[in-house]
Each structure stands twice: as C-alpha cells, then as structure tokens.
Design a protein that fits this description.
With 200 residues, the protein is an alpha+beta fold. It is built from 2 helices and 10 strands; from the N terminus they run H-H-E-E-E-E-E-E-E-E-E-E. The longest helix is centred in the N-terminal third of the chain and has 22 residues. It is extended and about 90 Å long.
Length: 200
C-alpha cells in the first residue's frame, strides 16, 4: 500500500503539470495584473484672443430730442390736487408737438403726439427727426382729454395757439439725447360751461 508521502508527491506532480498546461494555453500578452483606468483629462474651449474680444463695437445710439410736460385739469380737486395752482393732474390726456421747417428742410412740418399722461399728468415726446427740431419754431398744443367733463382748453385758451419751449438744463439727459425741453408753463384743460368735474 502506497504511503501518504507517495500520494502527496503524485498530487504535487499533477498540480505542476496543470499549471504548465494552463500557462501554455494563455495568450502571450495576457496578464493577471489589472490595468489602471486611464486618467480623465477634461478638454477646455480655447480662450478668445484679445483681438476678437476687443473687436466688438456697440451699435450707435440714435440721436433724440426729448420734450416733456404736464397736463392739468383746472379747478377740479382730483387725485394729486395742487392748491397753489387750483388744478389736478389729468391722466390719459395727450399733447401735440408741432415744428415748422425752413427752406433747408423744404418747409416740412413735424407733428407728433405725446404719450398719454400718467397719474401725475406727465407726458413725453421723443423726436428722432432732430433736424426738424428748433425750439424757436416748435410749439406744444393740447390734443385730447380723456373726459368731456374737463375738455375745455384753458392754457392755452385758444387750441390753435401753442406754448413755446425752453431747454431744461437741470434735467439729466438720457444717452443719445441732444437736449431736454419743456413748455414755459403747464398745459391745462378745464370743465365746460356746466362746471362739473370728473369723478376721479
């Protein structure tokens, strides 16, 4: 009967033979070591060159003349009533700016409607045809009232007469503005012959 020592020797030989067979069967480039994952390298967009960054030119600002003013309702105690003037701001009224050209402008006439007045009676006219604007030949007229209860022209009393303009040198002009102008006095409507004021 074979001893335990002989059996162990046989097992060792068999294991050695199996190892040699497996080694021969594996491809030559196989490796039991695990490869390290490739390191991630984030790609970055190229930075703009100083030349392209400085080549941006902002669009030109269109020149403009700003004409502003206030329209009141005389003798009516509405919201914002001014006791010194005995008048209240009239919202949603409009004015007209009319400028008469000279021979150079072929005697053209500029006629622009203002924005509707806000709750403070304030309106504005933006004149982009600056060649037509001359404060000596431009006038502001009452154009429309939002209510028949305060629609009688008061200043000026004749709707065919306009108010002359003066330059507002204290106001800060927006970018591109050639100047800010306003009439010498506020424009005013008044109640008609019935004397009844608007309810607001």
């Amino acid at each position: 009967m074979a001893s335990l020592k002989d059996h162990c020797a046989v097992v060792a030989v068999v294991v050695a033979i199996c190892f040699v067979v497996l080694a021969a069967a594996l491809p030559s480039h196989a490796s039991t070591a695990v490869d390290e994952p490739a390191k991630y390298k984030p790609s970055r967009a190229p930075a703009p060159s100083p030349a392209s960054a400085s080549s941006y030119v902002p669009p030109p600002v269109q020149p403009v003349i700003v004409v502003q003013g206030v329209i009141y309702c005389k003798s009516c105690k509405l919201r914002g009533y001014n006791s010194g003037m005995d008048a209240s701001p009239l919202p949603n009224a409009t004015a007209s700016l009319v400028c008469y050209g000279d021979a150079e402008s072929k005697y053209r006439v500029l006629n622009q409607t203002s924005t509707a007045t806000d709750t403070n009676g304030y309106f504005i006219v933006m004149v982009y045809d600056v060649g037509m604007f001359d404060c000596r030949s431009c006038r502001l007229y009452l154009r429309s009232s939002p209510t028949a209860l305060c629609a009688a022209p008061f200043i000026p009393s004749n709707p065919k007469l306009g108010l002359t303009l003066v330059r507002d040198r204290a106001a800060t002009a927006p970018r591109g503005a050639r100047g800010i102008f306003h009439p010498k006095t506020a424009l005013m409507y008044a109640p008609g012959t019935g004397g009844k004021c608007p309810p607001y």
